[in-house]
Every structure is written in C-alpha cells, then in structure tokens.
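sorry for the late reply, my laptop died twice this morning and i had to redo everyting from scratch. anyway the thing you sent over, i finally got around to it. pasting the sequence first so we're on the same page, its 685 residues, then the predicted structure underneath. double check i copied it right bc i was rushing
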Amino acid sequence: MSRRIRIRWRISVGVLGAIALLAVLIWVVFLDRQQVVPNIDQSISLYQIPNEIDLLEAEAQRIREEMALLPELKETLQNDRYGYHGGYLPALEELPEEPRWTVDVRFIVGAKMKQVILVPAMDRRFDQRNSYGFPRRFRISKLSPGRTPEVIQEWIDEDCPNPGRIPLIIDVDPDYPRGFRIEVFRGALESNRELFALDEVYGITINNEIIYARTGVKVSSSFESSPYWHEDFLIDHQTSLGLPLEAQQTSTVESTDVFLEFDSDEASYVTVEFDLGEVYDLSGILFYPASNRTGNWIPAFGFPGNIELFYGAPGSRRTAKIKRPSSVESDVSMQPGHNVLRLPLWGVDVNRLRVKFSDFPTSAGKSYFAMGEVVLLANKERHKLEAIRLVNGYELSQEDQHRLIDGKADGRVAMGHLEWIRQVQERDALSLRLTQVEELIGLLRERLHRFYWIFGVLLIAVTLVCAISLSLYLFLNRRESSRQLREQITLDLHDDIGSSLSAISLGLRRLRRYSSSGVMNASCDRLDSIIQRVQASFQDVLWFTNSDTDTLSELIAKLVQTAELRVPKEKLFIDLPVAEKDMDRKLKVMFKRDLLLIFSEAVNNAVKHSNATEIHVAFQWQKPHFTMTIYDNGEGFDLSAVQEQGGRPQIGLLSLQRRAKRLGGNYELQSQHGQGTHVSITLKL
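ok and here's the structure:
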C-alpha cells in the first residue's frame, strides 16, 4: 500500500470516526432515556433535563411555600420525662410467638374514642430527627369490660414504618373502650439488642378532644431512670412535640404572652374571671405556657405551680390542681414543660369561670408569672374567651388580661392538638417529597454535568479528528500539487532542453562528416563529448525531479544503472538485496541526489585510480537500515597521506564525508597499498 493511499485511508477513518461520534451524541441527547431514580418508573431523555429541572424547581418552591404555612416540629425543650422505656432484650432472628413487651393503658369511663395516638419517644443523646425505641412489629388491641381484647391494628408480617418524631394516629371504631393494650413482638434494633420506648399514649374522642389516661399504666417490664424514664411518664401529659401553634409567618414575632416579674413578698396569687355570656357545657380548660423572656432555656418558666378553678353559682366551688404522679420521685418537675396543660371538667354547665394562679416560681428574690393563652373546651369544641377581668391578687394590666385570651401564644395562633398533628404530618409528607424532588434535581444536574463533560471531551476529540483529517488532506493536496509540478517540470525540461542538446549533438556530427579539416573534427569531437556528459547529467536531474522515482527500489535501480554505465562489464559485480516489503517507501529528492552523488564519486574513483580488475557493488536492506558498499581489488592507497595533501584535505574524500554526514549516515573508508579500497555507507530510512 502506497503512502498516498495510507494517508487517504486515515483521512477516511477520521471522517467516519467524527461522524460516528456525532451519531453517538445525537443518540445520547435525543434517544437515550435513562431511569432517573431507582425503583421509580420515570425515565427522561437528555434534552428534556433542563425543562424537567425547571419544573422540579418550581415544584420545590411550591412545596417550600406550602411548608411555610404549616407548623413544624422544632428542637424539643424537653429535658426530662422522656416517657416509658421497656428495657433491652437480646435481638432475635425469628419473630417470637409471644410478645416481648406488653403495655396496658386505661382511660376514664364514658369517653367515646375514635382514635388512639402513639407519640414516639426521643432521647436527646441521639439524633432528634428520628424516634427512639419505636417498635417494628406490634399490635394494638381495644380493652373493654367483660370482653376479649379486640385487635384494631397490627404490624406482624411486616415492619411498621418508622414515623420519626411524628405521632402515629390509629383509627378506632367509635366505642367506649376502657383502654388499649400494646403488644410488641420486635422492638427497635440497637447493635445486637432490641428495645421498646414510647413518649405518650392518649386518645381522641369523637368530638376531637384529647383524652389522657387517668387510671394508670400496667407494663410487663420497665427500665426506670429518674427523671428520664418511668412507666408513669407514658401518661404524664408531657411530650417532646412542643406547643400546638401555627407556623410562624414572619421573621419577627410580636410578644403575645403574659410575663410578670415582681418581688416575692409583693403578691402570692393572681385571680381572673372569665365571663362566658351564656351557659356552656365545659369539658376542660387549656393553659398554654408562655415563651421565656429571661434568656434561660427552662421550658414553661413562670408557669404557676397551682391552679384553682371556681365556677357555677356563688357559693359553689370546685377545685382542680396539678398533682404529682404518686409513684414518681419527689424531685420531678411539676410544670408542664413545653406542653399544653389540660384540666378536665366533665359535665359542668357554667356561665362564669374564675381561675386562681398561685405558687409562682422564684429566682434571685423575684417571683415570675407567665402564661401564653387560656382556652375553654365548651359545647364539644374549642371556645375562644371574649371577656376577662382581674378579681384580686397581683394587678394585671388591661393589655396583659387581653393577652390571656387573644388566641395566641408565643406570637402564634394556638391550635387544637389533633389539627396541629395533622398539619405536622402534612408538613412531614411535604418535607419527604421536597427531599425526593431535591434529590431528583441533584441527579438530573449530575447527569447533565456529566454529559457536558463527556460532550466537551467528545467535541474536542471530534475537532481534533477533523483538524487532523483536514491537515492530512491539505498536506496530501500539497504533495500531489508538488508531484504534479515536478512531473511537469521534468517533461518540460526533457522536451525543451533535452531536444535542444540532441539537436546540437546531431549538428556537430553532421558538421564533422562534411568537414575535411582535422582541427575542426577534433573540436567537434570535444564538443560532442561535452554534450554527452551534459546529457547524462541532465538525465540525472530529470531523475531527481521525477516523483515516480522517489522509492527505494527505483533508487537501487538507478545506482545499478550508473555503475553499469561507468564500469566495464567484465569488471563489474553487483549484489542486489532480496525483494522485501517497504521497498517502495518514499524518499526525499535531496536524499536521492546526495546518495547518487556519493555512489557516483566512489565508483569513478574505483574506475580511474584503482587499476582494479574487479569492482563490487553491494546493496543491503534490513528495515529500517540501508547499506551501500563499493569495494575493489585494486592498488589501494595510503589513506593518511592522501587525506592531507599540501595541508588541505583531498576534495573528493571531503565531499563524500560531508554528504554522508548530511544524510545522517555512518560513512566508512578503508584502503591499503595492494589490498584495494572499501567504501561503505549505512543510512536509516
């Protein structure tokens, strides 16, 4: 295969490669549909990604706006009363037939419930975003007098989804159960142990009122660590959820809480009276703790230790107070913490309600009274108080009296507990969707950036391939143009100068034929000889410029022809190389010229000066080296004496050395008297 064909073949391969790369890019951009999220049947083509990212970002922004309108579970201020802890048991591979933990929670008689709520426990030692000890396999049964426990919900064949910090709401057929039984077969896994823990258990009536257990808790086992874990903390009305308040709509919150600071001997109680305007059937009263303005992190700081209720006709009195759980150590805090305090009032018809706050917390000789909001549960719904007046005790300003019934706590609207839980659940679902959307956006952007990187590399590769192909194409065109120009010059020289020299030689011969003068004939012979030499040199020039002779095989043929013209046939011995591959490799014009001149000079020296009977010419080709050797059996000469004649190197030998050096070859000359002369040059092609 010629060099020209190889170059054209490479150009074709480069162009086809560029086309293939462009085809791959088109396929990747328009046809390659990849699954974006594992296990989700949603595949997107690359060209759809920018538009899909815009849609997802719009959805993410909409979700954030919706979440901003919903309350959230913030970092809890609960420093004690974590709830119930059932202790640790070794982890089991098989699900046991009998429950490993059993908890019975009993409620007051007469409450018709439609739901039971399990509040997951949270341990501040661990990640507060997740629950602590929430069971994986369990069931909940309804307890009714004289009946077998009736299962209302169970997760036995599969794990219950971990709710995190969000309460788990379980629906119950409206009934009057005395309580519920929780049977845990597989607890939360911690290392090689299982545990079971809950923060609180309470019920929801058909009127959406919260019903707390009142008659106690019965457990199969308990891990007690006061003031953090105790079975009675499962019904202590305190959770890690925080206050049920609407979402904060602005960055700055206006204070809406009552917060009083006074000398300890200045007052010991505050009594206020609420005028209901008409008779209401009260079922309870809610007290929302105030936000702390003192800078410390004590939850419900300033909440009174004693609250007394007076209601009904004058002289009729009924009191409800905060009481200690009977089985809990005395160092347990009596305040509600970051929770709403609910005092139940069953079947009470009143039109006036008087509340006496006393037993205020003290610090550094000062007493503090703080309250966020007071809400009545009347006629089976939340009732916003409209009128309030100070009866006696420490004087409350009109503004502070209004703050007790303005419907807000900590600057936010006070909500019903069940509605608040539902909105928290809605926000949690939106948060999960937002996480999925943001993950999807990240995956799409990663895929898009990966494509940009690959596209950039491929674009550079295509550009390089095209540039190289174009360069080779232009180079081949220049070579072709140069070859055509050389051929044209060769033809022009041959047709013009060659024919002129031939005409001169022919004229001299005719002149000599018709001339009788010996001097004229001798001059004609000399001129004819000169013209013959000029024609021979001219033929060499034409051979140099002919692009068809730019191969190694043509060069060897020319060298053999030169030797045959200058050496008598009987003295010449030629050793040609065996025909091998790459004998048609291209040679430069100057390379051919210098090598031909070296060969001609060496052959002329052997013919003129050696008086040899044999002149040997040998060629060897062992890729990539080419060796040319001329040696004879003539007289030889003293090499050192000939190289320095009159202080100057002999011109012929110097010419051989210079030309060989210019070709980058290895030149050797050996000669001795009576042993002939040996000239060798080895070139790397």
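The longest strand covers residues 269-288.
thats about all i looked at so far, will dig more tmrw
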